[in-house]
Amino acid sequence: MTPDEEAEYKRRQKGRNLVVGGVLLFFAVLFYAITVVRMGD
Amino acid sequence: MMERDPAGTGPAALPVEWRDFFTLTKPRVMTLVIFTAICGLLAAPGSIHPVLGFTAVLAIAMGAGGSAALNHWWEADIDAGMKRTANRPLPSGRMRREDARDFGVFLSATSVFVMGVAIGWLASILLAVAIVYYAVVYTMWLKPRTPQNIVIGGGSGAFPPLIGWVAVTGEVTAMPLLLFAIIFMWTPPHFWALALFMKSDYAKVGIPMLPVVAGERATRRQILAYTVLLAPVTVAPWVIGGTSWVYGSVAVVLSGLFIALAIPVGSREKADGGDLMAEEKTLFKFSIYYLFILFAALVADRVLAANGLISAGVLS
Predict the structure, then answer these.
(1) What residues of chain B, 28 to 57, have a C-beta less than 8 Å from chain A?
(2) Residue A9 touches partner B, C-beta closer than 8 Å
């Protein structure tokens, strides 16, 4: 793997990690909110 | 997993861009899915907590995205042969087929689970049926076999407002079934208008779209027939007392315009040489506005009724 390819590899992997992390965080907050609403029913 | 491998067999090189996964969900189609789901949610009698309403729409969008990814997986070879779809993540070799399949299954299963846990199992079952309807009944079974694929397959796009409505009420009644029927009847003229000016692409990959199999003349007649049949279905929510005159008058005007635009398309025998199919393109564009305006009118009608500004309709 050339240095350019390695840089591209890391860039893509970082982008995916950030998106997956963001989605997981979003769902954690969403399920917390759903639980609060459901408990209030 | 998720590495670039155009042939599907060679060594891995670069990870797939997250944007390509997003592309698999067909974001533009999802716009209409989200819009009609929100309309079903807002038009339904009763109320839903905003967090639960948001979750219901999110689950519907995820289900639509998951089934779209499965559609990409199944049709990768077909997509490769059409100019319009050749640059999608799979035919362009940016992603492995199995990754699209796994992503689609995961997204679909998650959407059904989230809907069931957060909203209710009736809405969840309907969502599962919608996903199977699109990914299996339409994509795998009907589309490659019959020129009537669009007619029956249109049902998959008709589920979002029904599910949105059921998310609020927890039951299937006449009104959400009519919303389903409106999109069901709207899909053939909408899609066949597109197929008329895209037919060379479909012919190339052997998909039996109506213009390819039955010819242009038969397709034009069917467009006109379905547009005329759509009108009473569109007006029905008002006739049965589910809405007031606000929705009713918009439905009547829109239906009249749709038929007026479908008549020149339906009565032509064949496009002339060098014809740009302007009337067909106009009909296709109008059909999109038609659905957006009709559902917006439905929501406006229900919001006005809920605030006592107009009579609520017999069923409310």
Answers:
(1) 49, 51-52, 55
(2) yes
Residue A37 Rama label (left phi>0; alpha psi -120 to 50; beta): alpha
Nearest CA in chain A to B50: A37
Listed as ranges, residues in chain B with pLDDT below 50 are 1-11, 316
Name the residue with tokens 């491998």.
B5
Taking contacts as CB-CB distances below 8 angstroms, the residues of chain B near A19 are 18
Q: Is B12 exposed, middle or buried (0-12, 13-18, 19+ CB in 10 A)?
A: exposed
Tokens of B159: 């589920």
Of A13, A16, A33, the CB nearest to B51: A33
Q: Which of A9, A30, A33 sits opposite B15 (nearest CB)?
A: A9
Residue owning tokens 């609520």 = B312
| Strand positions, DSSP E, B178-303 | none
Query: Which residue is closest to B111 within chain A, CA to CA?
Result: A27
Residue B4 lies in a domain: no
Q: Answer for the pair B257, B286: CB distance below 8 angstroms, yes or no.
A: yes
Cα gap B307→B1, rounded to integer Å: 53
Q: Please tell me the distance in Å from B118's CA to the nearest CA on chain A.
A: 7
Q: Which two tokens stand for residue B311?
A: 């009579």
Partner residue facing B15 (CB), from A12, A30, A34: A12
Pick the residue from chain A with its C-alpha nearest to B18: A16
Same domain for B128 and B267, yes or no, is: no
Query: Rounded to 5, what percent of chain A is helix, strand, coil?
Result: 95, 0, 5
pTM: 0.89
Q: Which range of residues forms the domain containing residue B36?
A: 19-172
- Tens-binned pLDDT, residue by residue, of chain A (41 aa): 788 888 999 999 999 999 999 999 999 999 999 999 999 87
Query: How many whole angstroms separate alpha carbon B158 and alpha carbon A7?
Result: 45
User: What ipTM did this prediction achieve?
Assistant: 0.91
CA–CA separation, B270 vs B268, rounded Å?
Answer: 6
Residue B227 sits in the same domain as residue B301: yes
Residues B228 and B96 in one domain: no
State whether B189 and B252 are in the same domain: yes
